[in-house]
Amino acid sequence: MPKIIGGSLHEHREQTRQKLFAALSTLMAEQGFDAITLAEIAQAAGVGRTAVYNHFPDKEALLVGFITHETDQYAATLQRALDDIDDPVEQLRTYVRQQTQLKRVYHVAPGPELRSVLSRSTQQRVREHVVVVEQVLREILAAGIASGAFPEQDLDTTVPLVNACLSGRGVPDDGPARERAIAQTEAFVLRAVGAPVLVPA
């Protein structure tokens, strides 16, 4: 019988899942999803290959589990950052800043690489989790429109455009250049939704 890590079977299962997610994330950064095998993921995670099948029936299910986990974690962090802010313009600035802190973005629609290797049903399951974060942005913009901070607009068009802009951004890792890039990104998004913008010098 395999050794249980953690204080209970539930903790063991959760820690194993976290190891698999970390291994998948690292391998995807190195070689892309299509090139990875479950055996490589198991080896990188330090677990037996059969342990992977105890959690996920195949590689796509593991990816969906990982994206679900990442999205839930990000949505909770985002909500905490927004909880004490009432002004929709400041909420939108905070949303932009939260996005720029992410190294890899999994809560947006799958990019060309993933779309080319995932089945249609898996793409749909991934898309369902994208909506979690999109809904936060939609609520910010709707509140801004209701208050007059933003002009009337079609949110079905605006929301994916803003998220596409943020997921494709290039922000330096640190220093004054990073702060300038974030400020310019904020200003760009605010202009895009029709908010008045004061760009710092």
TrEMBL record:
Which molecular function GO terms apply here?
Answer: DNA-binding transcription factor activity; transcription cis-regulatory region binding
- For this UniProt record, give its keywords in alphabetical order, as a comma-separated list: DNA-binding, Transcription, Transcription regulation
- A Pfam family it matches: TetR_C_27
Q: What is this protein called?
A: TetR/AcrR family transcriptional regulator
Asked if the Swiss-Prot or TrEMBL record annotates the protein with the keyword Transcription, the reply is yes
Gene3D superfamilies according to UniProt? Tetracycline Repressor, domain 2
The protein's matches in SUPFAM superfamilies, at most eight in alphabetical order, are given as: Homeodomain-like, Tetracyclin repressor-like, C-terminal domain
Q: Does the record bear Protease in its keywords?
A: no
**Annotated DNA-binding ranges?**
37-56
What are the HTH tetR-type domain coordinates in residue numbering?
14-74
